[in-house]
Amino acid sequence: MRATAVLTGSWPTGEAVRPMSGPPSAVPALVARVQGGDAAAFGQLYREHRDVVARLVFRVLGPTSELEDVVQEVFLQVHRSIGRFRGQSQFSTWLHRVTVNVALQQIRRRKSQPIAYVTDPVDLPEETNDETPLDRTLTRERLAAVYRALDTLAPKKRAVLVLHDLESVPAAEIARIVDSNVLTVRTRLFYARREFNLALEKEPAFRGVLR
Predict the structure, then answer these.
(1) pTM to 2 decimals?
(2) What is the CATH number assigned to the segment(s) 3-206?
């Protein structure tokens, strides 16, 4: 198994982050209502996007107890800055950018202290009938190992790797999310994969698995 294959294997699943639900004409109307101070509209926006944001935060941060706090911080930032959204890009792209920026800020804050990854993230795949408790424990150990390997990456490389290899976001869209160009995104992705592979090969949970 190649090291990068674990990112698309049996880790927390879910649909990739998508544009806002509903017909395209409803998107600017809802955003405009929020920008006009409509609290009910913001509540609707939160309900429609909370799970998507939480999944992306989980993918960037890993299975930690920080998840809910970071999700709330994302929506605080959305509330504070949505007035500056002018529709130059899709709202989903803008929301990606806010979410990734908040998650990366959290990573930078915690760099000075060791991270204890929780062992029972709610998004782990359901246990199957032929899965033993040892299998389940190994899955959790490998998930924690994946995020320890991701912790070795610079935040910008980590974001690109997560967006591309976990969320299946195209490089051109990632460039818009991280406010860069496609060549830079592809370069970061190349080096991120290489560094991630090297870090994961040192993890006992993947000993004898990677090749």
Answers:
(1) 0.76
(2) 1.10.1740.10
